[in-house]
Amino acid sequence: MSLRRGSRRLYREYLAALRERKKKAKLEPMAISWHGSERSLRRNRTFGQLFKSFLGELRPHRAPMLFTLCTVALGAALTLIPPAATKLAIDNVFIGSPLPQWVDRILPANITSDRTILLGWIAASILVVSLIGTTFSIAGRWQATRITKRLQAHIRRKTFEHAVHLPLHRVWQMKSGGVASLLREDAGGVAELVFNMLYNPFRAIVQLVGILTILAITDYRLLLGATMLLPVVWLSHWTWIGRIRPLYRDIRQQRTDVDSHATEAFGGMRVVRAFAREQSEASRFLRGSHLMARQEILTWWWSRGIELAWALLIPT
Predict the structure, then answer these.
(1) What is residue 87's three-state secondary structure?
(2) Which of 59, 174, 220, 293 gives 178 a disulfide partner, CB atoms 3.0 to 4.6 angstroms apart?
(3) Span 264-296, pLDDT tens digits
(4) Nearest-5° angle of CA 50, CA 51, CA 52?
(5) Which of 152, 160, 174 is closest to 263 using CA atoms?
(6) How many Å apart are CA 108 and CA 42, to the nearest integer?
């Protein structure tokens, strides 16, 4: 059997398992992975409990995390000033509309009376504000990255200490390469929640509130038009949660299996060579890698679908 045909057959079996998983989820609260294992769809712990546990892990890093969120808020707020300043330049410099009263009170008369000087002041202000906002953003992101790396080391150490005390049959089920992938991907992924659950959402909320405020001040009709994007936001969120995230989970599981097989093959190289199994082991490894590539392409197409929806609504 060729590698292409073998990986294609495995991919078809994987798609069939995906369809079976959706059907079974509608009938009973169980999901079947394409490896044949079942897991319950009922949550053992609520989101609040999990979030509280995550904050407990962040307790030693409270001060740096608070500094990070403050700098993120300042940086996100400052990034909203250049668009407003650009509007000021277009309306009051190029078109010649009267300046707002608060600008007349701040700037001297010799600046507001000369359009060339006023345009230079606006350009310089945009540059300074952009530099300050970028500085705040870099400082906050650096602190978040430091927290992430320290939390990764802490979670991986706790996971390793827990794994070495598991029963031997559970250790055998995880396999040698699977343990390495578990420590690298799963334990490390917990620390990535610093960005995925705190940093990025907080920054997005600050920017969203700022943009909606600017739209409401500028023209309420613009605010009403922005609310029309809410269905697309819901659709992209549903697609990410219901379609794309399970695919990423399957890719991670497949990567674990490939790593496990490679580790076991090289660990038992004497047996492999004694029975002339080099070619078959290489074929098995490549079939697993090709299947993972097909899964990644499937995930890529789903992601491009979301990007296409946003590109049609908000063209660049």
Answers:
(1) helix
(2) 174
(3) 888 788 888 888 888 888 888 889 899 999 999
(4) 90
(5) 174
(6) 66
CA angle 70, 72, 78 (to 5 degrees): 105
**Could you report the per-residue pLDDT of 94-121, keeping only the tens digit for each?**
887 777 777 777 878 777 777 788 888 8
- As given in the structure block, the two tokens for residue 310 are 């946003």
* Residue 255 in tokens: 């990567």
How far is 195 from 198, CA to CA, in rounded Å? 6
**pTM for the whole structure:** 0.70
**241 DSSP assignment:** I
Phi, psi of 163 (to 5 degrees): -70, -35
Residue 30, classed as helix, strand or coil, is: strand
The ranges assigned to domains in the chain are 1-42+228-316, 44-227
Residues 6+ apart with CB under 8 A from 194: 58, 65, 144, 147, 148, 151
The pair of structure tokens assigned to 279 is: 């070619």
